[in-house]
């Protein structure tokens, strides 16, 4: 994929804080984590993703993270390290996933294919990485969902168009952080490949 | 790579806190970061890495992180979430890289090939991912070095056997967190590939 093509890739990410599940499989809302925004926006910027939507319905969380963004985009953080602002400029805070889909559809003038990520295979259509990579390269529009806490609630997965295959390591342990999972997914979908 | 082979893979990671560079390219020692240990050990455990050596010469940092490990391996953390302990059991704290190499050589009865990671191409031999992946699969022994702060000091890179290619995104921005970079490198070297 050439740099020009990549810069035009119509791919967005959404990091979901509600509804997600806790370790007892109960639906909860999670707190926004500072480092999730830094790490995932830096990976998104590296791989030419258009936007990272941070989804939380909680007003106090939205305000807290708007302050964080302002620090790095306009405040002392911008002077200290402008590279953080470059990445965080991709972040938009949103109240729910429906609004993200409306915004993405408006932006690309096309409804995105919405794919969830999860650590286990769920009852959903599986979209192989290679196929999604090719479609992105062909200019198709994708919104990839990542869950915080113990992962996306089933209702979010079911409402999308399918899932990406769970990231298979080499044993039974499959407890990557969402930051690591997002980096790996972007490398598989948008990376220059194994030089 | 079968699960059995992966479990026998002779690969270790070292996360270096001294000597690394700051944003002005000066050699410094960095503070150990809680989430580095969690994220990188979870990725290491997922991909069947043997050990993650956390390298810092600072005694207070060593003690602080031994307390963190004890919390998750033996304390309340172990009761709350045993999956964290499973990953953190791979972590060993070490004073310098020479001791890591001695320990790894003793463990595998063979001196490892030591490869550094960096965001730019340095004056060093570049080992393609595909080649290292094949050699790991053939049972060869590797120690992969990751730098904190703004990356590994040149003396660390020069002392090793070479570098892995910098992770190429799609534009000029190459400021991945070390947590993201480690996840991507492990997926390239040990992952099951793009299903």
Number of extended strands of chain A: 8
N-to-C SSE string of chain A, H for helix and E for strand: HEEEHEHHHEHEHEHEH
Mean pLDDT, all residues of chain A: 92
Q: What's the Cα radius of gyration of chain A? A: 16 Å
| Largest sheet geometry of chain A | 6 strands, parallel
CA(first)-CA(last) distance of chain A: 13 Å
Percent helix range of chain A: 40-55%
What gross morphology of chain A would you assign?
globular
Query: Strands of the biggest beta sheet of chain A: in what spatial order?
Result: 5-4-1-7-6-8
How many individual helices of chain A?
9
As residue ranges, the low-confidence spans of chain A are 1-6
Counting helices, strands and paired strands, the structural category of chain A is: alpha/beta
Q: In terms of quaternary structure, what is this?
A: homodimer
Beta-strand residue fraction of chain A: 15-25%
Please name the two chains that share the biggest interface, counting residues whose Cβ lies under 8 Å from a Cβ on the partner chain.
A-B, 47 and 47 residues
How would you describe the overall organization of this protein?
The structure is a homodimer of 195-residue chains. By secondary structure, the first copy, chain A, is α/β, with parallel strands linked by helices. Chain A has nine helices and eight strands. In chain A, the strands form two sheets. A six-stranded parallel β-sheet of chain A has the order 5-4-1-7-6-8, sandwiched between helices. In chain A, a hairpin with a 5-residue loop joins strand 2 and strand 3 (27-28). The two termini of chain A are 13 Å apart. In chain A, 46% of the residues are buried. At the A-B interface, helix 1, helix 2, helix 5, helix 7 and helix 9 of A face helix 1, helix 2, helix 5, helix 7 and helix 9 of B.
